[in-house]
Amino acid sequence: MESRLLSLVESHGKSMICLYTHRRMAITAEDVCLDRILLIQDGFTVEEVTPENDLQILGSDVTVQITSGDAELLVRLPFGSQTQMFLQEVRRRCSPGVARSEDATAVDPEQSTSGEAKTASTYRDQKPKTASEMPTSEQAQGLSTRPPWLRDTLIQSWLTQKEDSYTHLQSFRFFVGTYNVNGQSPQESLQPWLSQDKEPPDVYCVGFQELDLSKEAFFFNDTPKEEEWFKAVTKGLHPGAKYAKVKLVRLVGILLLLYVRTELAMNISEVEAETVGTGIMGRMGNKGGVGIRFQFHNTTVCVVNAHLAAHAEEYERRNQEVQDICARMQFHQLEPSRPLLTIDGHDIVLWLGDLNYQLEEQDTERVKKLIQAQDFQALYRRDQLKIQMDAKVIFQDFREGEISFQPTYKYIPGSDDWDDSEKCHAPAWCDRILWRGKTVSQLSYQSHTALKNSDHKPVSALFDVGIKVMDEKRYRKAFEEIVRSLDKMENASIPSVTLSKREFLFKDVKYLQRRVETFTICNGPVPCQFEFINKPDEDTYCKPWLIAKPSKGFLLPGSELMMELELLVNKSTATALNSGEGKLEDILVLHLDRGKDYFLSVSGNYLPSCFGCPIQALCYMKEPIRETLPKAVRELTLMPLSTEDAFLEEKPLDIPKELWMMVNHLYRNACQQEDLFQQPGLRPEFDQIRDWLDTETLDVLVPVGSNHAVAEALLLFLESLPEPVICYKLYKSCLECANSYEMSSQVVAMLPKCHQNVFRYLVAFLRELLKYSGKNHLDVNILATIFGGLLVRPPSGHTKPGTAEKQKAQQFILQFLCQQGDVPGYRLLQR
């Protein structure tokens, strides 16, 4: 398999596709090399094809044949919207009469509409017929003036209600496996894990965690081990059947693979994949989940692979991460007008992974004795996941099979012996498989001690899953009946709804505090499509701090729908609300297709916060922001950035007191904290820290949260600054002098005094942390990468930074961390 980068280029009125060879991590121009050029001219074609002996599965990679003159190229592109956009742009330029740019356009492969091409065959599915494409009676065709997609949506909803009349359940065997490989490459056959049953499964769902523990994987989501483990899994599948890879999705070290028996591949459709990072600042992908959803015959299935926070005492953080994955993992549907699908919106959910829930009993010797006696039930009663599920805190409606195998963590790699290191972890069932669905029954649930590559043992579960299979003749009859009923209803009257509430008040809103108000839409006797629409001269239907869930949809006659209005003030909206230039006021317009509009009033008040406030303004605020007069907050927030020491008569603080309080707390309490700046805090802890910074006058940060929570609050504070520590106007200069400490120091000297002080203070603090790297596991590259993206940010309107730009920002910070001797900000640490 050879990897290439494809790029669509326009120059001097001509279009072409350029193919580049590249290193594994293409960061700079030196990492790519032009391989060949295919001119888009007469006779140029691009066509999606199915290679011989392959099947089609919608959602898998796309095989494309490109022809230009005598040259032919067969490439595989990753399935997704970027590939579709790339192919759409190429086809547009193949069409006669397409206007082309007369100016030369230099296209960087990293920034262009591009895809990765691989010379390999794949499987794709033919798009299932929509309602408007299904064969119908003459009367059922073309009766509605509504858009076809809307009519499809309404018909599909009714078909779902009548599903029992034209489907029957058929059993299929699903293999689900999870394995934390501790950053190791495959060194042994996976067949003892994947092929232990005599009968081959119909579907494989295989998940890995800690695929790669390197910094490249963590910061750039790049690893060669994805291909290594993909090949190992493919070789380890049951030899009694042939399988097609449906989908692969990875987030850093969390990998999920989906396979199906080749003879069943044509029954798989609507495949989508998503990822959710729950690491530091709620985004980093060292922890989180990946998911694949698909339709198998008429049953929707969602598979989630998660890796949650470690350490026995962090069960609340794990609970929070489960809730975050459930809330944030949303899948696009093939029809863009349809709402996003959540995990809960599927008939069957399979959840696997290193969930890291451990035992409340942490006496290692007692745990080992119970394991030796095979008294697993006594241990299971102390299992954190069982306790949390029994309390209905997480995984409501999910089930787990009986555990009759010994804990899967922590072993000495290469053996079946328990960990005997200095930490000597108590054994635990970290690796779990759960399910939800009325037609699912578990056939087996076991660990596989034959595999010894990692400090975890792999786990598998085999399920008998009832899948709804459609009878074509009965389906067509139900379809035609629904179309006739719909026609009569549409001609009867215009749609109308009743809203349970039209005015919404959000009191005392705080920074990053998610607030939700609900209301109910009750539909009348006619099917209705609704959507929140833009007001005149506005680009969106609501202000950026507000969102309606769902923002559009449809209602069957007499049905009700619970709606949510969600309000969240973040870094993009906080500054205007702090200054009073923005207000929590909006009018939403709910429009009914072929009906009238309904108006919803939203209002509230925002409590000013140091988050989203400029550095200079905070330096002039001697009191907490909520104790400062609104007029003063407004004037200071809108004050132009000055390089003078005293813009006003009053002498400012050297650095914002809020920043000093957070750094001082970490300096005195967290220099030896393991995984500082790499593990998130709990959300309630951040709420307490924010409130303390915004209201209290004491110079010390009381113990309102863990060290991890304070560290995350510091990062969120820096991210929220409307003008970053390195001012926007000096962004380009920073990148240009990233390899020269002397020139970089000159750039810092050009900063306003308050920004200079903050930069030097933070550098002094980070260098202090590096003195304890043996305890906190930090190194100069980790800190430079994390803080480089916060202190050195591109201005508004700048293209999204590529990897090369991010590395230069990292290098700029790294220079200061590597310098010998004290830095000017050191004295502030001793204050």
Automatic annotation (TrEMBL):
It comes from the Eukaryota. It comes from Eublepharis macularius (Leopard gecko). The keyword Hydrolase applies. One of its GO terms (cellular component) is cytosol. Its main location: membrane. Residues 110-123, 133-144 have a biased composition (Polar residues). Residues 97-146 are annotated as: Disordered. One of its GO terms (biological process) is phosphatidylinositol dephosphorylation. Belongs to the inositol 1,4,5-trisphosphate 5-phosphatase type II family. This is phosphoinositide 5-phosphatase. Keywords: Cytoplasmic vesicle, Endosome, Hydrolase, Lipid metabolism, Membrane. It is an enzyme of class 3 (hydrolase). The keyword Hydrolase applies.
